[in-house]
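$ ./design --mode recover --in tokens.txt
reading tokens...
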């Protein structure tokens, strides 16, 4: 989709924007990630059934630490999976998930020098698309807007560290179909489907609730190369235009490079 190509191009541009930085500083980090996704999905707009499934995907992460230990970061992740219901083994549909985020976190000094706390915000663009192929219907749960972010990391020694991060959307555009299926608006814009995925209404915590919680472990193989193991829980819920819940359990591994 055009939206995916544009997002990846913008993200890659941001990822490599700081390449002119001296190698000696090693303030920048780029990570290549791959992982496994377990999903729970319920969208009363289409069906009252509880659906589950597994999937896989990949991602690119960029992080820059300033002299004052503030953080600039950017991520782009793509996952796809197949969901089904216990009510019928023949009820299957495809799910495509694209997440893009760019943000800035201020460093908050703590008495313990091994602890690093960063607080700030980000812009998020989340496209979550369901294709009910056999039923000639589609649905989506998209959010494009602002979020509050926090991150806490504990350095055990120069090679090992543990951390946790939390992100909560607070104000943005929620995009949900009035009903599933190819309505007149979708048919008129089927050659420009990006327009459909961005047409929504401004929302806040009263109409939409979600969070993304992560825990991670870092191991430095060398001064430049490291590995990160990560578990992530992403939860989103809304009643617009009818009840929908999506919960993701994601485990992933990342190979990262400092420069």
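writing sequence...
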């Amino acid at each position: 989709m055009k939206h995916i190509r544009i997002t990846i191009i913008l993200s890659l541009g941001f990822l490599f924007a700081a390449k002119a930085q001296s190698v000696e500083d090693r303030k920048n980090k780029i990570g290549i990630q791959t992982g496994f996704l377990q999903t729970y999905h319920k969208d009363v707009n289409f069906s009252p059934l509880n659906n589950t499934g597994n999937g896989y995907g990949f991602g690119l992460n960029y992080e820059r630490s300033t002299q004052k230990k503030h953080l600039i970061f950017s991520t782009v992740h793509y996952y796809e999976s197949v969901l089904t219901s216990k009510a019928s083994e023949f009820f299957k549909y495809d799910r495509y998930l694209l997440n893009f985020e760019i943000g800035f976190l201020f460093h908050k000094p703590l008495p313990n020098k091994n602890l690093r706390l960063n607080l700030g915000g980000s812009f998020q663009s989340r496209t979550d698309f369901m294709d009910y192929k056999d039923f000639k219907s589609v649905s989506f749960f998209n959010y494009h807007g602002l979020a509050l972010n926090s991150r806490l990391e504990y350095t055990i020694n120069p090679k090992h560290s543990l951390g946790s991060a939390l992100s909560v959307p607070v104000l943005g555009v929620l995009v949900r179909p009035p009903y599933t299926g190819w309505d007149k608006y979708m048919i008129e814009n089927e050659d420009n489907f990006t327009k459909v995925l961005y047409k929504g209404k401004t929302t806040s915590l009263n109409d939409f609730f979600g969070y993304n919680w992560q825990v991670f472990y870092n191991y430095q193989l060398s001064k430049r190369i490291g590995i990160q193991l990560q578990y992530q829980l992403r939860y989103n819920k809304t009643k617009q235009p009818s009840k929908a819940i999506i919960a993701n359990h994601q485990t992933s591994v990342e190979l990262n490079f400092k420069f």
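exit 0
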